[in-house]
Amino acid sequence: MSIVFSDIGKAAADLLSKDFGNPGAIKVETKTTAANGVNFTVAANRDNKAGGVAAELKTKYADKSKGLTLTETWTTANVLSGEIELADALTKGLKVTVLGALMPHANQKHAKIGAEFRQPGVATRAALDVFKGPIATADIAINQNGILAGLETAYDVSTGATTKYNLAVGMATSEYAVTAHVGNKLDTYAVAIYHKVAKHLETAARATWDRKAGATVNMDVAAKYHLDGGAFAKVKFNNAGVLGLGYTQVLRPGVKVTVGGAFDTTRLSENVHKVGAAFVFEA
């Protein structure tokens, strides 16, 4: 099975970051599908502290027979973007993407052209950010019998400088995954572990060290427990003393609710804790 570079360590990263109830905000998302296959998504996010609401409207149409996907998005920040994706049309395993964005109020524009090529056990991607730099990015990932390795880099065409290079290695099975990342031009080092302990229990841990920030190693641990009826609970804790809790329940087909929060256990008596919720409606 082929994976892309960003998939290396994804199981641990998702368990450590997702489904914790959107701390500090309330999120509502609705997804509907028209008879002709067009998908509509409306998402709104309200910051509990600032009180502002950020929202976006997204439409997506996919013609699977031709491998064509069209996506349009308009946000309350007045960012209008569109994406064209063509998969397996030119050759099997090749996906070409063209992305554009316009901010009319600021007279700014953005365009990116990308390609992804997958074959058994290997995947590579390349993209060119036309108006920023231009900056060319590329990555490659190899998966051979559960042994993972990947490289990611970015190059500023205008200055001739390499702006990013990241490395990743690891090992993954259906039960566990162990990965190591070296990033930020060899300044950041991270090790992540994911383990499916039992049918209903998953755990993850991550240690990160930035050599420019001193000797401190930041650590996160998390667990996910699957309950009956499509529900699950999550907990995470880091060395800064922040406790994260999350609970997700499928109320009925098409309706999912997640509640949770982030609590600073070193300042329990202070007003620094964050709670939030996310509601997803799909039809």
TrEMBL record:
This is Mitochondrial outer membrane protein porin. It holds the Pfam family Porin_3. The keyword Zinc-finger does not apply. It comes from Allomyces macrogynus (strain ATCC 38327) (Allomyces javanicus var. macrogynus). Its main location: mitochondrion. InterPro entries: Porin_dom_sf, Porin_Euk, Porin_Euk/Tom40. The keyword Oxidoreductase does not apply. GO terms for cellular component: mitochondrial outer membrane; pore complex. It is found in: Mitochondrion outer membrane. One of its GO terms (molecular function) is porin activity. Keywords: Ion transport, Membrane, Mitochondrion, Mitochondrion outer membrane, Porin, Transmembrane, Transmembrane beta strand, Transport.
